[in-house]
Structures are given as structure tokens and as C-alpha cells.
Design a protein that fits this description.
10 strands; alpha+beta
């Protein structure tokens, strides 16, 4: 299977992405949408990660985002791997590369602008672009927000660049930037949550 290494070296500069044919051509810290998590971890290790307190469960337990940290990561602080936990093949439906900004949302927005500009250059003709800001639905106080820059491909898959501006009183007040690569199936699921 063809792979295009998506290495986003984001310290002070952003390296240009090369165009890929499909969403699963992108690789983030060795993970790719459509691959099995069993290529990286044993069945028992995956079950252990699923049951970890750091795992984020989507409504109805349809999907779970497993937090992965490694000193070997070259770009991201951590990676979220979204799987359907009822699927024994543990196919990856989304990869969420994360940068942590603590309480520095302005730096998050600066990095988001850099990444989005580069992605616009790479996908100017092949993806629909939209940007929007919403209240972060998991913060019941309504004080946290999510700022989305989204590239939607003709097959329904998407790449999202998201800054989370978290309220200081939220359970996790850490401002974060996510680069999320989402399969068509996972995007369809996310749309039902709106």
C-alpha cells in the first residue's frame, strides 16, 4: 500500500505537505487511517489502552480515542488513535496529532494559521475548505471553544486543524491544537453528533 510520510515539523516552521491521493496515504508518527492498531500493539495491550482513564469515549461508546505518548515521537506531544472498540481488527478511523499550549491560546492560533495556510496550498483544488468556531460541547459551562479549519475531500474524509481554547475551570484547562485526519466513516459519525 502506497504511503506518503506526513511529517509535520512544527517548531518554528512548517514544511510543505506533498499531495496524496487518499486520506489513508498520510502517516502521523507511523500511524495511518485504515491501518490496524494490531500492527503496533498486541491485542492485550490495546485492551489495556482502551480501559485506560486517558481514553476518550465518544457518545454511545461508538468510538474511543486512545491516547498514545512516546519519547520517539518526532513532531507531536501525543497522538489520539480513534478506533471502534467493537471491531476486533481495531482499524484506525482517525489520527489526532496534538500540541499542548497550556494557557497560551494565541500561540495555538498562530500555529493553526501556519498549518492551515500550508494545507490550503496543498489542497487548493481537491478539498472544500471551511472555518468555524463553536462552543466546546463537553464543557457544560459553555466557556470553552473550538476553532475549526476543515478540509473536506470528495469522498467525505477530512483533515481538521482545531484549536481548543479551554476555560481555566474545565477539568482539563490545557489549550491544544489537533491535526485530525478522519476517515469518511468517522466523519459521517461526527456529523450525526452536531
Amino acid at each position: 500500500m502506497k504511503r506518503l510520510l506526513l511529517i509535520l515539523v512544527l517548531t518554528f516552521s512548517f514544511q510543505t505537505l506533498t499531495r496524496a491521493d487518499e486520506i489513508n496515504d498520510y502517516v502521523v508518527e507511523n500511524f495511518s487511517v485504515g491501518d490496524s492498531l494490531l500492527n503496533f500493539y498486541s491485542y492485550n495491550k490495546i485492551k489495556e489502552k482502551i480501559n485506560s482513564k486517558t481514553t476518550f469515549w465518544y457518545p454511545n461508546n461508538a468510538y474511543a480515542s486512545i491516547l498514545v505518548k512516546s519519547k520517539d515521537f518526532k513532531v507531536y506531544d501525543e497522538v489520539g488513535i480513534v478506533i471502534n472498540t467493537k471491531d476486533d481488527k481495531f482499524i484506525i478511523h482517525s489520527i489526532e496529532g496534538t500540541f499542548n499550549y497550556q494557557s497560551n491560546i494565541d500561540e495555538c492560533y498562530k500555529k493553526q494559521d501556519i498549518i492551515t495556510a500550508d494545507l490550503k496550498d496543498a489542497f487548493s483544488l481537491s478539498a472544500e475548505f471551511q472555518t468555524y468556531k463553536v462552543k466546546y460541547k463537553w464543557d457544560k459551562s459553555g466557556k470553552s471553544t473550538s476553532n475549526y479549519d476543515e478540509f473536506i475531500f470528495s469522498d467525505g474524509s477530512a483533515i481538521r486543524v482545531i484549536c481548543y481554547d479551554m476555560d481555566k475551570d474545565f477539568i482539563d484547562p490545557n489549550d491544544q491544537l489537533y491535526l485530525a485526519i478522519n476517515s469518511k466513516k468517522f466523519m459521517n459519525y461526527l456529523i450525526t453528533l452536531k
